[in-house]
Amino acid sequence: MLNDYKGWTGSADELAGVLATLAPAYVPEVEPPSLRVVRDWRNKGIFSQPKQKPYGYRQVLEGVAALWWLSKKGWQSKVIVETLSALQDSDLVDFIKRMNLDDSGVAAAPVRDTRRQVRDANVAIELLARGIVRQYQYTVLGRHGIVRQTQPLGENGGIHKDLRLAMSKLSRLQVECRGEDHCACVHDVLSMAKAPVSSEGWGIDLVDQTDFEHKDIVLVDPVHSTPTRECQDLALMAAGGEIDLIEGRLHDQLRAIVGRSVLSPAEVYTAVRGFICRNPLVNLSVANAFMSRSGMNGLYKAFRDFYEELHEGMLIGGMAHKCVHCGALMRPRRGYPDGVCSVEPCFRSNPAKVGERLDPVRDKLFVAVPAVMAYWVTPAYDEIRIHDAAKAMGYVAELYPDEDACDVGINGQAVGIDAKNYASPTRLAKKLNGSIGRLRNYDTRIIAVSDHLVASRRDYVGVVRSELLKKGEPSTLRVMSVSDVIAWLRREVRNG
Ligand SMILES: [Zn+2]
Predict the structure, then answer these.
(1) 3-state secondary structure of 337
(2) Which residues in the chain are classed under CATH 3.40.50?
(3) The pTM is what?
């Protein structure tokens, strides 16, 4: 039927007539556009022919598709104009033939300009990463005092401009993919960012596109609501290196303590960070006992940078539940009478179980601040597992040796291990290709990936290996799961 109009030309009035003929077949139960509407669509650019020129076959196709998008999908005319501009006549014919086959709009996929969308999606996610990090630095860390404000509060009610720009780009993509927009509210965007970009909630149907580089990334830590490490990496890359890394600030804060101590800096660094990671939930009396040990008193002054008083909303039956596996606070959650451990790799691999019930009335209770939970305590679950297992096997093992040259050092410079919990294996490989850091000081260099990530995605380790550079320092890395690292250490012991 559409073919009958190839070569057709006519006036606005005649086009309205053609569309009235075609509409019942392609867009049933919808009022076809009147002459006034046809003129309006031309003013809005939905009809693309130059002014003063007659309407043609192209406008017939544009009219049918636009009518469908407006009535079935509720698209705004701006989106329709942009979408049409990316489509050839043959794409449009193909789309019109398929548009009613699948009401979810998925049928529109073959004619979408997916290459442009993938490009837009990658840019939008990079902007979003940068916006999220900046917003976090301003609103949260600014208050905690770990990080001073680095970005002046923008207009638009304090939402960073990168975040705004990313939201509008994502809105457009979502509308193009599904005909609906979930990016109107910054809180919705931030909660969406707690799941991988490829997940359903994002509404971006580009998962099968290999060029969609950022599809596996998780930008916001689902438990602590901080930007993830991979989010920071991406932000750093997108910003050309000018951003102050949150984690770098924590590190500096700790180095300041180290500088004030009578002990060797490396010793104090390991002791203080080890204490915080093993005591993410702590009694004031336990903390005081640690801080009064020789060389550790620097922590008194900085204690509030790393810990905050436990909020009573986190209590269960008036008590704070301490996880039996890792010592972190178990947060209240529906369906879990004892709560759930706030360390992700712990609750993903262990049953929820209380070790101790602490009474905040008897002794003041403190928990590590969200940034410390996300960047130190959570990865420490794997680091401590490896460290403690190695020690039990008779190795000389050390956490954060030489002020954090790596996460776990074994037998001096023989083996260096960094534990990583990036949701995206591609992002992890990129990060390592950029620099392997001071892991280069070790003879054997190991990247240990959290077990739950490897379990949830079988090719995780394979993807990292295949994307690591084949020469230079990245090529010397051994990538394995945490359990495999421990098994490897055990074999090495046996082989002497
Ligand atoms: Zn735990």
Answers:
(1) strand
(2) 380-494
(3) 0.64
